[in-house]
Amino acid sequence: MRSFDDKKPRGKSLLRFAAPQVFYPLAGTLAPWFAAAAALLALIGLYVGFFVAPTDAQQGEVYRVIFIHVPAAWMSMFIYLLMAFWSAVGLVMNTRLSFMMARALAPTGAMFCFVALWTGALWGKPTWGTYWVWDARLTSQLLLMFLYLGYMALTAAIEDGRRADRAGAIIALVGAVNVPIIYFSVMWWNTLHQGASVSLTQAPTMATTMLAGMLLMAVAAWAYTVAAAFWRVRSFILERERIPTGWVPSLNDRRTVDGMGFLERFLEHGRSCMVRLGQLRRDHFVHCYGTVSGVSPS
Questions:
Q1: Is residue 95 one of the residues assigned to a domain?
Q2: Which helix (H) or strand (E) holds 186?
Q3: Would you give the distance in Å from CA 42 to the centre of its chain?
Q4: Which of 162, 176, 187, 235 is most exposed, with minimal Cβ within 10 Å?
Q5: What is the pLDDT of residues 102-148, one digit of tens each?
């Protein structure tokens, strides 16, 4: 069966980026910009959250963990839905890049899920008196962590890339059912976890400064996710496209590889400068003394 990304991209349609050889340089160009934006927004968000936002009247200073906990929890759910989306696209359109994007997102999603659980435990001790309870929200979030780990373990255990992609896609699609359970758990069950402070249908229940800091951190987490996924998917492309397609080696010939290619070009430029400097010193020596290593000046 011929995959969608095996077809030659035509015109200026966005669908041409489904081809790994087209998406590879684009990801390399955009990733540093998203990484820089993530760092800048995170610094501003942390400053607003820890130094500008007022102290909570009920929880005191401990509430400031929300500036890390809430964005991490949001991203852990959002990334899993993205994985399910790319998995579905890969199954329907038979695009290699879609499966690679799903796999590239998984480690970042697992990291955010772990941060959400860890910061939630630190928040729970002073407010609930314990680090962990088998609450509906906490339990479903822990299940999400296991889904991330199971997805990564399964796709890494299967040597055949195509089979690994399809097996991981099934886990991603089935596990996506858990995301709305996490979000609505505080409404469906009587839980210790507080309700949502930010909602699309209601006005926020926190101060404007608090909301600004949390949203800045959320956007920073999103930008970091994009940068990390782009860099990681480039590694998958190099690994999986080198042998079957043969276009990857040509990238090195044209010197268009970013990342390590940039380092290689930098070192090559330095070597060329040293060679040129040595040549200039040799010419100067010949000009002054008339010979070098038995060679007379012309």
A1: yes
A2: helix 178-188
A3: 15
A4: 187
A5: 999 999 999 999 999 999 888 878 877 788 888 888 889 999 999 99
